[in-house]
């Protein structure tokens, strides 16, 4: 069996059994522990027992779950009943939820097997997966490089065959950037398409859960399964979920694709630019039409995001005080000291930095100068995208300006790290859907192309992505073989 066999299609058609697929993932887990992909793992014997049960159920025709026996990883900021959910933070090191997040519940309802909880940047704050209290995740293509963040564990798990698919969360690029760095497919859906109930919040108005897979078809299937209105999430939108997979083959001839001029500046690695241009050539041959568009506020997206997201984080993370749940540190029997010791020891450097930044921008005298101004900028960004989508059906762009960087290369300069999100944060600020998919290899490392759609137009994104994937026929090698 090969990593290319880890697909929902092959499992549902009986070309590969759940036991074969799960055994492959378990074996990979044991051989590649140095990747540090998982924070907690389901015991191997439990995984294999569930796989055997799934195969038996198929033989008897007892179950019709669309993911029956499919082995998946879950990012460790999604609640899992009876299993630790740490958000890669010391402050939640002993937190065991008594319920499942809605997306986890849906995966289980369809027969999916949960392999474990994937490593991540602490509280999803980071672009390299170096901020985890449980150690850095390594990129399976080059173990000296980062896998991207914050869903680095989820992306690395799929890329290395330690999971057949995974769920990640995306607040400013946290699914798409690691997907690009690891050579897999990652979708950030429209805000409100997927329930956030049970997702530990970073920035509530920006967070969204999405699938990370080996191919576009599996991604479309998974998004269809986890999408839909949820009364437990007030931001969940009650809009019908299209049959994404059924629409994959629909002709893309005549579709208008926009090229944002601001995204192809000199800051973009020329080899990444070349890979994206090659993808454009393929789409032209498939009948798509291209036109240049402008998003002038792109340069303000990073400062806007790093005002709004930390502001929401400072509010969301105020609940971690050592009183109700999570870790408590002694403070000489003084409540204020206990708060201080718990948060000082429980939160990592990056989380503290963002809490302080967010608290500052929300404080008296600075609210209007920073937070209010950022909200007005966000509105302009949304309006710009809205105007562009009156002219085009989809936007094509880079995912990141550079190739996967070396571990430790950018940790000394947080601002340089933040700039790696330049092509992704605008999508979250506007609440739009976007996918990252592989478009080639450069110096043995994957590069990705981003396709951005209008609100709730994931079906168009998937159509273009699937037909581009088929035409490119990359067949990337197995990095862990």
Describe this structure in words.
The chain is 37% helix and 13% strand. The protein is of the alpha/beta class. The chain has two domains: 3-251 and 403-472, Amidase signature (AS) enzymes, CATH 3.90.1300.10; 298-377, no CATH class. An eleven-stranded mixed beta sheet has the order 1-3-2-4-6-5-10-11-9-7-8, with helices on both faces. The chain starts with 7 loop residues before the first helix and ends in a 9-residue tail after the last helix.
Give a brief rundown of this model:
This protein has helices at residues 8-12, 18-31, 44-60, 102-109, 152-160, 176-182, 216-226, 270-285, 298-316, 335-346, 349-362, 367-388, 414-418, 425-430, 458-472, and strands at residues 38-41, 71-75, 113-118, 165-170, 185-188, 208-213, 256-260, 289-293, 394-398, 434-442, 445-453.
């Amino acid at each position: 069996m090969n990593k290319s066999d880890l697909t929902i299609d092959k499992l549902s058609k009986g070309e590969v059994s759940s036991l074969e697929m799960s055994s492959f993932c378990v074996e990979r887990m044991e051989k590649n522990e140095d990747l540090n992909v998982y924070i907690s793992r389901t015991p191997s014997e439990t995984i294999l027992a569930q796989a055997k049960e799934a195969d038996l159920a198929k033989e008897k025709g007892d179950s019709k779950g669309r993911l029956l026996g499919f082995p998946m990883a879950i990012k460790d900021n999604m609640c899992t009943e009876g299993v630790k959910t740490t958000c890669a933070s010391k402050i939640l090191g002993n937190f065991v939820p008594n319920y499942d997040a809605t997306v986890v519940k849906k995966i289980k309802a369809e027969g999916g097997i949960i392999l474990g909880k994937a490593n991540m940047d602490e509280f999803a704050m980071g672009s390299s997966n170096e901020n985890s209290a449980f150690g850095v995740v390594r990129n399976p293509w080059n173990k000296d490089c980062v896998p991207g963040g914050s869903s680095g564990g989820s992306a690395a798990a799929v890329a290395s065959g330690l999971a057949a698919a995974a769920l990640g969360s995306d607040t400013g690029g946290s699914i798409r950037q690691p997907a690009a760095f690891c050579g897999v497919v990652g979708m950030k859906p429209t805000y409100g398409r997927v329930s956030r109930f049970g997702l530990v919040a970073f920035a509530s108005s920006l967070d969204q859960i999405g699938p990370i897979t080996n191919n576009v078809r599996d991604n479309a299937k998974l998004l269809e399964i986890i999408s839909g209105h949820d009364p437990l999430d007030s931001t969940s939108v009650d809009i019908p979920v299209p049959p994404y997979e059924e629409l994959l083959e629909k002709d893309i001839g005549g579709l208008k694709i926009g090229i944002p001029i601001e995204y192809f500046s000199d800051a973009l690695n020329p080899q990444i630019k070349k890979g994206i241009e090659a993808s454009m050539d393929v789409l032209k041959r498939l009948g798509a039409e291209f036109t240049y568009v402008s998003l002038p506020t792109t340069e303000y997206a990073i400062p806007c995001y790093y005002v709004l997201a930390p502001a929401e984080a400072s509010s969301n993370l105020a609940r971690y005080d050592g009183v109700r749940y999570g870790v408590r540190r002694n403070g000489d029997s003084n409540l204020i000291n206990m708060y201080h010791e718990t948060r000082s020891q429980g939160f990592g450097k990056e989380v503290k930095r963002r809490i302080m930044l967010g608290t500052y921008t929300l404080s008296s005298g600075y609210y209007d100068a920073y937070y209010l101004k950022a909200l007005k900028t966000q509105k302009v960004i949304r309006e710009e995208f809205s105007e562009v989508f009156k002219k085009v059906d989809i936007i094509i762009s880079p995912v990141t300006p550079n190739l996967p960087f070396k571990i430790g290369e950018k940790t000394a300069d947080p601002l340089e790290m933040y700039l790696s999100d330049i092509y992704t944060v605008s999508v979250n600020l506007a609440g739009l859907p976007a996918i990252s998919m592989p478009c080639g290899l450069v110096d043995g490392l994957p590069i990705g192309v981003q396709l951005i759609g209008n609100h709730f137009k994931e079906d168009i994104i998937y159509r273009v992505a699937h037909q581009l994937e088929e035409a490119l026929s990359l067949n990337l090698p197995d990095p862990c073989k």
